[in-house]
């Protein structure tokens, strides 16, 4: 269809994207039926089956018409001005039918942005695209009846709260520059001591004529483009001194710059992708890979603890994006510090996984697009807790790697880890955990639980249960303990229920 853009649509609400605070319990992924994987969806969309039901000519769709299609057997959704027939997609939606149906028959743009704005719906739903939404004039949408007023009031309260966060961040920065023979340094001055070099993700683009600056935090993201006055080399570093300093190398040494260039704030925040090179690949277990990537020289990005990056790939013409936790090469190396050039990811290989195969076939030296990091968790959430309890199933441990490392090497917190696997061969970093237990004797304890152990296994067996949780964490410790949970949704759901049963407060639990 000619009017479908290949990449992201321009956001319909062109204001700066406003982040929302992370829900504390945010795991809602549901297990899909057999034959309903992403690969199956791609196959169906390419099969030539009519998924639109409205013919191939794009339609102009009114809100009134859209509203009629709000049932599972006839569901349309509008996102960023474009309308899709999602009836057949429902079974394939990893967040489940009930979640997706929240957007059916509606302009679901803000809902979509809140949940997973990085999902490449435009490419994934291309074969279900039926037309564009006729934008109604604001005056027509405000009906002065008490029932319709209640909705906007709730939304307004929320929006103004978000806008005040947004303004706070905006007010933080003033720009300036300084230079010498070789370098031009762009300064982002802020009153807040909380702004760090890791909040700045910068890319030199347009052959050294342009600088893209994203300022990323847990509450909001800002995005700027700087058209540089003169050309710079393809190398960048960012430091924090009195202000944040973006250090660029002049292409023409000795040229005096009158200014650094023209700064423009981008109207919407869109995850930017840059090609990253695979440096090495090794096995952590029989089905789990540790991948070491390098950012291009023209990029500065230091994903903080708790952040995930996005990998993007093209499967049969459908663009797929997926978040992966930023991991680390070794959990026993107390001196490890992430830098702005390298990062690691731990990836479990599934035989049917759309991205798994891409990673299996990716060889050192090859490139893959990696998007700007995002974070749902911030270290501050655990700062007042003396003890951390981590409950992870399988590769669910990966989002916790850097948190564990931080707690042990940088704080005096006690850490208990309950690690659930099928068999002994599935346990990630088993020997490293033993080393850490010896090194942090009394501060770190790991309990391995196997669901299918061999006969020689004398540790915990079976599945998670209340008695098992009680054995791992004594009730007197509960108040001073922060709990992390991550694993397949069944594990997470059950664990959260048991934690409630043993009276762990919701505010001290975080489920990845
Ligand atoms: C607007 C209404 C929607 C709601 C409320 C919703 C909700 C959710 C939720 C709760 C999840 C689980 C998130 C997690 O695991 O952290 C999810 C996952 C997902 N949704 Fe939606 N969704 C919506 C629309 C869509 C649409 C239109 C698409 C179209 C392609 C889509 C594609 C996906 C994908 C690909 C995932 C898996 C993300 C991953 O790889 O982790 N969703 N959704």
TrEMBL record:
A GO term from the CC aspect: endoplasmic reticulum
Residue ranges the record marks as coiled coil: none
Any GO BP annotation: superoxide metabolic process
Molecular function terms from GO: cytochrome-b5 reductase activity, acting on NAD(P)H; heme binding; metal ion binding
Gene3D superfamilies: Cytochrome b5-like heme/steroid binding domain, Nucleotide-binding domain of ferredoxin-NADP reductase (FNR) module, Translation factors
UniProt keyword Oxidoreductase present: yes
Entry-linked CDD domains: cyt_b5_reduct_like, p23_like
The entry's keywords: Heme, Iron, Metal-binding, Oxidoreductase
Domain Cytochrome b5 heme-binding stretches: 58-134
Entry keyword annotation includes Oxidoreductase: yes
Domain FAD-binding FR-type: 271-380
PANTHER family with a match to the protein in the record: CYTOCHROME B5 REDUCTASE 4, CYTOCHROME B5 REDUCTASE 4 FAMILY MEMBER
Family in the record: Belongs to the flavoprotein pyridine nucleotide cytochrome reductase family.
Name listed for the protein in its UniProt record: Uncharacterized protein
Native source organism of the sequence: Ciona savignyi (Pacific transparent sea squirt)
């Amino acid at each position: 269809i000619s009017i479908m853009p290949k990449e992201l649509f321009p956001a319909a609400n062109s204001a700066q994207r406003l982040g929302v605070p992370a829900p504390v319990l945010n795991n809602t992924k549901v297990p899909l039926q057999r034959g309903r994987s992403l690969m199956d969806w791609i196959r169906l969309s390419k099969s030539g089956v009519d998924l639109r039901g409205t013919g191939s000519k794009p339609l102009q769709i009114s809100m009134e018409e859209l509203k009629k299609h709000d049932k599972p057997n006839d569901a349309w959704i509008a996102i960023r001005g474009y309308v899709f027939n999602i009836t057949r997609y429902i079974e394939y939606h990893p967040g489940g039918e009930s979640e997706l149906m929240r957007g059916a028959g509606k302009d679901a743009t803000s809902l979509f942005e809140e949940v997973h704005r990085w999902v490449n719906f435009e490419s994934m739903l291309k074969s279900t695209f039926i037309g564009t939404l006729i934008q109604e004039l604001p005056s027509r949408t405000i009906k002065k009846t008490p029932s319709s007023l209640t909705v906007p009031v709730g939304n307004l309260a929320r929006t103004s709260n978000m806008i005040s966060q947004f303004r706070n961040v905006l007010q933080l920065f003033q720009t300036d520059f300084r230079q010498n023979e070789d370098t031009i340094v762009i300064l982002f001055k802020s009153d807040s001591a909380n702004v760090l070099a890791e909040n700045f993700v910068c890319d030199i683009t347009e052959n050294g004529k342009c600088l893209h600056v994203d300022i990323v935090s847990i509450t909001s993201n800002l995005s700027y483009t700087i058209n540089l006055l003169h050309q710079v080399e393809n190398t960048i570093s960012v430091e924090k001194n009195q202000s944040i300093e973006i250090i660029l190398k002049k292409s023409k040494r000795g040229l005096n710059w009158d200014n650094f260039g023209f700064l423009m704030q981008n109207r919407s925040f869109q995850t930017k992708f840059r090609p990253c090179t695979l440096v090495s690949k090794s096995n952590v277990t029989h089905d789990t890979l540790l991948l070491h990537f390098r950012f291009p020289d023209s990029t500065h990005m230091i994903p903080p603890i708790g952040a995930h990056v996005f990998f993007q790939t093209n499967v049969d013409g459908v663009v797929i994006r997926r978040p992966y936790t930023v991991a680390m090469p070794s959990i026993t190396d107390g001196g490890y510090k992430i830098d702005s050039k390298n990062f690691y990811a731990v990836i479990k290989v599934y035989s049917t996984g759309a991205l798994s195969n891409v990673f299996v076939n990716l060889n050192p030296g090859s490139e893959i697009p990696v998007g700007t990091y995002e974070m749902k968790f911030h270290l501050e959430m655990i700062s007042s807790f003396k003890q951390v309890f981590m409950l992870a199933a399988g590769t669910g441990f990966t989002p916790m790697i850097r948190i564990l490392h931080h707690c042990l090497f940088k704080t005096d917190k006690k850490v208990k880890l309950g690690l659930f696997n099928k068999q002994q061969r599935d346990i990630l970093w088993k020997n490293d955990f033993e080393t850490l237990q010896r090194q942090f004797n009394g501060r770190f304890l790991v309990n391995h639980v196997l669901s299918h152990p061999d006969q020689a296994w004398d540790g915990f067996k079976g599945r998670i249960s209340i008695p098992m949780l009680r054995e791992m964490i004594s009730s007197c410790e509960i108040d001073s303990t922060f709990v992390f949970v991550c694993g397949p949704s069944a594990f997470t759901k059950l664990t959260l229920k048991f934690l409630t049963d043993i009276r762990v407060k919701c505010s001290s639990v975080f489920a990845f």
